Fold this sequence. Notes:
Blueprint: H1 5-10, H2 14-45, H3 48-59, H4 62-73, H5 78-101, H6 107-129, H7 141-170, H8 172-189, H9 197-200, H10 209-222, H11 226-239, H12 247-255, H13 259-283, H14 289-309, H15 313-341, H16 347-376, H17 379-397, H18 400-407
Amino acid sequence: MGSLTAIRRVLSSRNTQIFYACSLTSWTGLWMQKVATDWLAWQLTHSALWIGILTFCNLGPSVIVSPFAGAVSDRVDRLRLTVLTQLITAGHALTLAVLTLTGLIRIEYMAALEILLGTSQAFAQPARQSLVPGMVSRADLPGAVALNSLCFNLARSIGPGIGGVIVATWGVVPAILANCCAYLAASMTMPLLKLDAATRRGHAPTGSVLREALDGIVYVARHPGMGPLFLYAATVGVLIRAVPELLPPFVAGLFGRGAEGLATVSSAIGLAALAGGTFIAMRGRLKGLCKLAVGSGLVLALATAGFVATHAFPFAVVCAAAMGAATTIHGIAVQTLLQTATASHMIGRVLSLWGMITRAAPAMGALSYGAASEVAGLQAPVLVGCAIAAGACVAAISRLPHMARALERGEAPT
Length: 414
C-alpha cells in the first residue's frame, strides 16, 4: 500500500483532479467514437487498405505538424490551445454524426475529417502534456505521467466496450454524438485550472516557429539518450503499434467476428494497458525505466506475432491483452524519461516529437500493412515486421547502459 502514496500525492490537488477528470471524460468519448468509425468504415468498404488509409489520415499529419505544434505550444498559452483543440474535436464528431445520420457519409469524407482531427490532436498532445510538470513536484512527475496514461487506458478499456454495445444496439451515430458531448464538457471544465504563468507559457518567442521547431529536432538528435530512444520507439511504432489500428480486418478476417468481437479485443487491450499503467504508477521511480522501455518492445513484438498467427479467438484475446500492457509500459517509460530529462523551455517541442512518433509511426505502419494485405494477406507482412522489431530490440539492449546514464539521472542538458 505504501506504493500508492505517489498516486495519492498526485491526486491531492484541485488542479490534478480537474485535469485527470477532463482527460478521462474526453478520452472515453474518443474511444467510443473510434469503435464506431472503424466499424462504419469497414461497412462502407470491407477493405483493410481503406482502414489503413483512414488511420494514416488521422495519425499521418503528425509527421508535418508535430514539430511546429511543439514550437507553438512553447510560446502560446497552453491551456487556451488545449481548449481550442477540444472544441475542434467536438465539432469533428458533430459533423461526422450529421453526415452519417443524413446518409451523406462517404469514405472520402471520413478521410478528410480524420485529417482535421489528426491535425488538432497533434497540437493538443504537447499543449496538454506540457501542463503536467507545473501541477506536481519533480519527485511526483513519474506518477503524474503514469496517471495520465492510466486515464487514457481506463478510457481505452471502458470506451470500446460501451461503444461496441451502443453500435450493436443503436448504430454508430449515438456513439459519435457521445464523444461530441464528452469533449464539450472537457472544454468547459479545463479553464477551471489555476496554473502559474510559466506553466501556461514556456517562453517568449525567440525566433520564427520554423527556427524553434528545428531547434527542437536538433536538441533531441544530439542528446545521447533521446536520439537512440526515439529511433527505437519509431521502429516499434511502425512495425508493431500499427497492428491495433487495423483491428476490424483482423477481427472479421481471421476470427469471423463482428462489432462485439472488435469491442472484446479493444477492451482486452485497454484493461491490460490499465494494469501496465498501474504497475508503472505504483513503481514511482526513474531507475530501470530505460530497461522497461526497451524490454516491453520485445514483449510487444512477441505478443503481436501470436495475435496475427492464430485463428483461435480466445488465444488472440490473451495476446491482445499482452500487447496492451506492453504498449503502455513502453509509452509511459519513454514519456517519463523525456519529461524528466528535458529542459523546461524545450518540453513542448520534445513532447511534440514524441507525439509524432506515437501517432505518425503507427499510421505509416497501418498504411503499409493495409496495402500489403491486398497482395499477401494480413498475417505474413505483420509477422515479418515482428521479426524485424525483435532484432531492433536486441540492438537497443546493447546501448542500454549508455541511454540509462543520459536519461535516468533526470538532468536536463544545456
